Amino acid sequence: MKEKISNDLSYIKAGYRSDKWKWVLSLPVVSGGGAPVSSLKEYKTPDSCGSSVKGASPDIVINEKSITENSDHPDTADLLVKNNGPNCFLSSSKPFSEDQLTKEQIMKTFGMDKCPKALPCQKRCSSNPWCLADLGSGTGKEKIRPTDQPRDPNKPVGLQNTANTCWINSALQALFQLPKFRNVINGVEGFAGEESLSCMLYLLQAMFVEMDTHANKAIACSPGSVFEKMGLFATQEIMRKDADHEVLKCVSEFLENTIDTLIADPRLGSKLSPLFNTNLMRLARWKCPTCETEHESHLAPATSYTMAAYVSGDECPLDQCLVDLQTETQTGVSLVCGSDSNSPGGCGARVKADRIVTPKIQTLPTILVIRNNSLMDRDLKRRLHVVYPETLDLTSHTLNHVAATYTLSAVIFHHGHWVKHFSAHVKTQNNKWYNFNDEQVSELTNRSTAGNPPESHRNYFSIANVANKYKHRSGLRVSRGAFVWIYVRSNTAEEEIARVSPPESVVEYVLQKQEESMTVNHQRQAEMKKEKEELLSQLAVFDMSEEFSLISEPLLSAWFNDDDLKYTPQPSVLAQALCDHKLFSPLKFHMIKCVRTEGVKALLSHRSGIHEDDTLVKLGMPLFLPSESGCCKQCIIKAVNHILFIEKVKALHKQAKKEARREHEGPTQVIGLETLEFWPRLALSAYVKENGIDLEGEEEENGMEISKKNEDNVKNEDENIDSDTKVDSSHVNGNGCEKTDIKPKSEGMVVSSCDKTNLVPETDSIIACDSRTGDVNTDLDLKDKAEKDFGNSEKKLSNSKGNETKEGSSELTLFNEDIVCRHNLLSPTAYSSKISNELAQEIMELCGDSIHPAMYQEDFDTCQDCRTLLEESIRACSSGRQQKKQLNNLYLEKKRPHPTRDTGKQIFLVSRDFIAAWKTYIRACERGELEVTAPTHLENAPLLCDHNHLLFPVFSLQSHQMTEYLVLVWEEEWNILKELYPPDHTITASFSDAGILQTVPSMCESGCVEVRAAQDYEEQFSYEHEIIHVRQVNSVNDIPRRSRSTRGAQATTPALTNESMGPRKKPRLAALGVGGGGSVGVAASITGVGGSAGVGGSSAGVGAASGSSSSSSSQRLVRASKTFSSTDTLREVQNFIAARTGIWPMLQTLWVCSEDQSDSGEDLPVQLTDDHRAMTLNALRVRPGDTIYFRAAVEDMERAAGDGVVEFNEIEDDW
């Protein structure tokens, strides 16, 4: 449903505060004086309500109350007389210019006109630019930062984030909690004080001592500190190695480059390399296609300090995502049989063969660093959950199956592609897990949450239902944002590691720096706080007559709250209140404060004040602006003209709707009723595009500052606007009508019972009202009696094209597109009205390029082709309605001949294809469609074979089976159908005393019936976009046994069984899956473990079979459905199962129900092997609605299905 047009015609809804821009409505209509905008109303005809102005044109009437209220403009009436035309202020007003802008208007726009009674203001009114008390009170709440709070000695320390250093903080926290790494770093001597801090080794030594001995909850990045030197060195030296440096992967690059830098140091290389070095030996196996000799060889080993992972499926286990450990199949490799091989023999021929390369870990690292490369994939549409264990077992990937178990030590999270933030979960040496988010440090929890887990949850950055699934899974965690995992080998993690103390010189240096910083900083911060309060008091304006300047409120707030000894603002802080012209924007009035000019000078020169750097000077961003020139007049003018344009469009919209309800003597132009209602959107859109107005930004910025009182005012103003301009949507959409008691006040005005607003003339009101019941009366001329009679004869015929236009598109895109037919002429079924040419031209000028090209034709008249089609449709619809009355029982298929009740009576057979086409024709007539096609003749040929005998064994078919192919009709009904639609074949029949249907002609005995049954049977296996179900079971005993008659007859014995007489009925969800464009639609039926099976009529649930294991009764298993085509292979079904459950294809065991004969007469489940993967569903004899059963290995089901129902209840329309 379209939003009310009144919202578009309100300047308040466009983002302009009513109290700041109300003065625009009082502007003179033209330069040099005149009536204000608010006093001018649309002209009214002499017989309309309102009193005329003496001496004015009879077409002009002005509201007397408006003139009285605006006594400052005595020349309003003269001005109206002078313009002497409809809507004079709209047609003659010029754009508001900067020369007309006064200082008073600027003060009103920025809210500076309301000065507090007492200065300086102490009421803490945040919206008043003269008040600074709220700024001081907001910053005086004594909010102590973690960098100033004392630290609990049993908890780790946080790191302050300055200039986007969250990636350094997360990496340092992870490295600090690695005892062996710290021992290697602390074991190097040679620290020589300040000059040594240009080396990564000594920076880490000093940083680790700082993190171990710091007295506060977080380490501040103060000037000259070790932490600041670490940040500078990391960004300038470590990260410069990467040309494609991005914030997305900087934490992993920092870890890798730090390890490379440290290992390159000869003092550390021999000790640090074994901690991270992973040596992979690659074992290659291949078979010679000539002599069929199998070869095995070792390829060149690979060495790395980190390992890569790629998550390809949701909730995929981490050990299955390790790219470096995955087996690779190399196709078409040129090899020599017998050379460089550990296997004896070989023909010596050079061949191209497929080689399987399996990596094996030859050297195990002590610390294993894994990076999630899937988070850097820009083509990845959504983040996938990865399940990572607290104990990672890589024994199966080692060369000689050496025990290789790793314990999780740290996880670094990446917070989205747009947020670009990092945090970490790290296990400390006392085996407690903590969340490190820069300064904030909190202990991890596993408590249940109503929504998504918070950052202190061990399953952080995962969806709520997925997190709850793994809540009680001991040793497993899940996340969508895990970027780096750090594991420590278990035999080294559990053993007691002797701590190596850092060099004494490093400890002395750090402790000395801490003492100096604590003494100096505390004294300086106390002095700075007093100085800032004094500077703030000097900024407050005491007298309105003194000189004042404008400054950004975010800038003042950031300066007052900053704890640094020297504050230099960021450009983003200054830009908040500025427009594109680098002046204060009128739409951001709430971000501006008025301050004394002398106080600003003191603020910029004081040591505790605001300091400007070279960056701000180059960008040309001012810290403050003079009051006379600081307000952007260009933005004010743009906003004023936008508001005036909105008011102009609102007035024209109201005027056009009033013109549409009266008769016209002069030249007129046709306008569609939908266009009449919604053309302002086209005009406003064209104006916004032409003038570059950012409505979204205005609404967002202003909407945040609107108080509750102003919202109430807005609501009241909107109600007034609605009462003046709202049009009943039933005239456009034809959805309903309401009664009204409004009385007409002019001649020729007829108020219909459904005309709520009395804005449509009599003829168009009939059209609008008739749209509810299907009546159409178009292009009606009151002087043309023949046209009127023709229009009345179209009763109960709906406008199919008009409905398509309004229902098919959500918005009007072109002016009058709702009345143009496909021949680019006026549609005879369009809902339209008429307005004067002058008004229509003015409206079209406002709409710009959004005009339908057909409107520029000189001969834009009613389309004769569509009119002819309409006449034919009327006649066809009339005939169709008459046929439904005559054959109502046949249409409803009621009171059909019965085998026992109607024996001996003559009846006739009619094909189901004809009845379906006839019903479609009747329904089109009932809907009143524009194009209605009736059947040409009664076709019974589908019921007969080439020998002119029946193709169906009607004597053995049940009633519900017979109705799939034919319909039994009475003799009276046959006579009516025969007159309307000449039959190609007549098939008579009657029921015998035994209830057997005897037909003339009889059933074919030449084999045609069997051939047709076989063809129908085969057609069941040729389909597109049909539903196939997949269902997880614990064993083959859980597969429900079904009678063969419920699934279909065999192709080898197609004769005379009930199911072989035609195609099976489509599954209920199959109709939803047909949409074209590929087999990607997904549907599912969610049921519990003991619920209905949903296929074949069996009610046995998964786990209900007697052969199930004891655990199957409580296991929640997967059921899902998807649309497939018969040409799809089993491999695609396996991929679908893997995508929905996380069970990889090689872990799946599948069954389908076989049609092999058995003594029990049931379909037996047949297990599918790897040889079946390339076979199509047609070859596997899988039909629409069939179920493919699967299971996973017991050890993998825990990861695959979870502890909840992994099922889906909708179709994903991806095509």
List keywords for this structure.
single chain, 1215 residues, alpha+beta, eight-stranded mixed sheet, seven-stranded mixed sheet, 36 strands, 32% helix, flat, disordered C terminus
Protein model, in words:
Residues 1046-1060 have a biased composition (Polar residues). Residues 698-743, 1038-1065 are annotated as: Disordered. InterPro entries: DUSP-like_sf, Papain-like_cys_pep_sf, Pept_C19_DUSP, Peptidase_C19, Peptidase_C19_UCH, USP, USP_CS. Pfam families: UCH. GO terms for molecular function: cysteine-type deubiquitinase activity. 32% of the residues lie in helices and 15% in strands. By secondary structure, the chain is α+β, with helices and mostly antiparallel strands. It contains 37 helices and 36 strands. It is flat and about 115 Å long. Strands 8, 12, 14, 15, 16, 17, 18 and 20 form an eight-stranded mixed beta sheet that branches. The protein has a seven-stranded mixed beta sheet with strand order 31-35-34-36-30-33-32.
Can you give the helix content as a percent range?
25-40%
Please state roughly what percent of the residues sit in beta strands, choosing from under 5%, 5-15%, 15-25%, 25-35%, 35-45% or over 45%: 15-25%
Q: How far apart are the termini?
A: 25 Å
Mean pLDDT: 74
Shape: flat
How many helices in DSSP terms? 37
Structural Rg = 42 Å
Q: What profile does the largest beta sheet have?
A: 8 strands, mixed
Family: Belongs to the peptidase C19 family.
GO molecular function: cysteine-type deubiquitinase activity
Protein name: Ubiquitinyl hydrolase 1
Pfam families: UCH
